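Data availability excerpt. The first of two example chains:
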Amino acid sequence: MESTLVELRNVAVSYAGHSGERLKVAGDLSLTLEKGEMVYLIGPTGSGKSTLLKLLYMDLKPDFGIVRVGHYQSDRIADKEIPYLRRSLGVVFQDFQLLSDRSAFENIAFAMYATGKRGRAVKERVMQALARVGLSHRAHAKPHEMSGGEQQRACIARAIVNEPVLLLADEPTGNLDPRVADEIQKVLIKLHKEGMAVLMATHDYRLVKEFPARTMALVKGRLVEVDPETL
């Protein structure tokens, strides 16, 4: 389907343990995500949520099966194409990963410089991204001068400044108290309503129930759709 943005088809993935043995993470992952759709990925710590996201930005390749994101496919993509795939994605992490010696503006601009952008267009796009996440007033603040919620807003602005087709959020509220987590969740939902596809990995079932969307649970290495109301 042309509207399908992400497809995992019968994916198995493992990684090398300390003794060189292969440790299985998942044995039969199947998932589709449509353009502009919002999906939660839930499951306890260690269930493989971060691994699934790594499959999407192709930091990991599956042992079996196919991962497709846009027109990039895991069994066909050349190493030199992976940076271009990643430019079409925005990624938000739990631990922010901001450059400590640079302001919010500079952190976001850095994401544009990395793709070869320069000049006035960078300033305009960075200020637009800050405005979209409600952080225009903190453009010149450095990470140590910002609250956790402000740092995460800066991370989201950095992730969206290059207009990705898909935003991957890996436990984006995991280090935040419930009130601030709600504020960050509302930012993600706003971006989704503006047309961006969002895949959010979380173990905060309260958020999933409060802001329901299609929800996939990782259960024993497989993906199962669940009703948020039952969590």
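And the second chain:
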Amino acid sequence: MVQLMSHHTPVSAKQAEAALVELHRRYSKKLLGYFIKMLNKDVDLAQDFVQDIFLKLMEKKHLFDPDKRFYSWIFAIASNMCKTAYRHQGKTVSLHAEMNHPGGLDENLAEKKLFLKALQDSIDKLEHHHKTVFVLRYLEHFPLNEIAEITESSLGTVKSRLFYATKKITDQLKHFDPSFETTIFKLN
């Protein structure tokens, strides 16, 4: 793990800066994409959140458990930042549906656009905790156990939230080709 996260070895300011630069290089693009999806496609706000998360990282480095994956820990912080923004700003957090779906979606571009718009609208209507697990699972491709870690929920709670989110979305999209649902939403 990067020296910055070490609990035992003191690091110089130069080493800490180098470690932070490396962490930013490794994770900033993925975090930016996540924030854009969760913050109503507001790129400026998402970029601010990326910068803020690295400040939080420095402030909370003592909370990192070296037995856990850093990737999950930083996404837990990102998820909490979105949850706080959602509560404090009272705005609907939205998702840009840029999903690469296998199969049938490429057959008809107009149908694909209609489906993606309907999918976006359905996801926008989800409660925040349902949207969070949905985005982490289907757009960020996290395994269920890591989503549980990120959201500080049990695996059963994550599965339940994912089930209800998926059910709500598929109910709203049932007038589309049913193969869309089965190729997109698989709880595994």
